[in-house]
Protein: Serine--tRNA ligase
Organism: Occultella glacieicola
Amino acid sequence: MIDLKSLREDPDVARASQRARGESPGLVDRVLDADARRRALLTEFERLRAEQKEVSRSVGKASPEERSAILGRAKELSDHVKAAEADADRARDDLDRLVAGFPNIVLDGVPAGGEDDYVVLRTEGSPRDFAAEGFTPRDHLEIGELLGAIDTERGAKVSGARFYYLTGIGARLELALLNAAIDKALAAGFTPMITPTLVKPEIMAGTGFLGAHADEIYRLEADDLYLVGTSEVALAGYHSREILDLSAGPKRYAGWSACYRREAGSYGKDTRGIIRVHQFHKVEMFSYAPIEEAEAEHARLLAWEEEMLAAAGLPYRVIDTAAGDLGTSAARKFDCEAWLPTQGRYLELTSTSNCTTYQARRLGIRERTLSGTRPVATLNGTLATTRWLVAILENHQLPDGSVRVPEGLRGYLGGLEVLEPAAPVTA
RNA sequence: GGAGACGUCGCAUAGUCUGGUCUAGUGCGCAUCCCUGCUAAGGAUGUGACGGGGCAACCCGUCCGUGGGUUCAAAUCCCACCGUCUCCGCCA
């Protein structure tokens, strides 16, 4: 939720933000109108209510002779108050609806435009030259099957398309990666958390996931709960309706959870292997920070992501996502994309967003300061996901189909240096 | 799943039966000050959130788990829901 006061004081910033996102700047004026109307009706209601309270109080003290006259007056006022309150409530609902649909204000420097208008900030590491090494790289699924690490056929049999089993060394490799991520988070001062993956509608709405991309989310209708697409949701909800003390710096949590995505509208895209799946695991960083520290914290989250990518030995690039490709809640987003040799393209492995105070306003997360309370900034970023296995298997493969274990993960696999092809799991 | 108890401004509690004097009292904690001169005790004052108006001291409104209802008037009466605890049943 955007800040109405600053919108009132400086609507041009919001208009510019809307234009950068490729959305309507006219929405700003509709919000301003609704806000003015709501405040006028609220003032009127409160004036009548104050009068009614005064008259009502006088009923008890009135002498029997005065009583019926006062009661008549009170009754009349009561009707007026009810009507005025209904008007004010309606105006508030109108305003709320408009505000709910208003995305976060993008930060200065965010590239304008859509999905393809990102800016590459830098490229780290260099992709291997498989031609020079004299072999054609296998894709992650082929390797995964050779290693007995990934089984998508049985995943489809049991749960449908875009489901999979990680088997044997595949399961161990994912656990190794996620454990490495948790250790990285611990070293950076995060509190590890294992979070709920089913959340209430108000929490899902508060994080901004029920806006434009609501069809991405699984909903359990019988229980009115949502399956989270990331532990960001549960971690943002953790301190909802609380007042925090951030005087010692940001509060940092690292969530480990399964993540669920419907992948509606991605038919035919990344259908092979485990690049785009309905269920995966992720270790996610989440920070609650004073707003002045948000941009510095965002830079820190990005740096920790890059340390993980280095531990996994992956070549990657960092992009500054364009305004139109930001989520509803994000004011700025950096993605790290690893090189995918068999597709000759970069694949998103991490994403870190600065949501400024947008989520905190919706979820009622504030901090205590010398001059009262105010909303905090929330930020999130990926430390590892199941998808990383794709890049690890492809980038570290050897001609015979085995895979060199990146040094940063060996300690989590009992010192194992190479994953060797194994007999497949057969019936 | 069944039965019962409970939910009050940081914490603990009063108030609910008998609606108006609750403009929610008290204790603890906390903050400032006073006294004292020494890691004590005492005293005074203050002590929330949200919204609106001046936008500074102030004023108004909302908030007693949540949402409805009754009433001129609801912490208080009625209904529904949520949560916590206890007991029973069932499942692991």
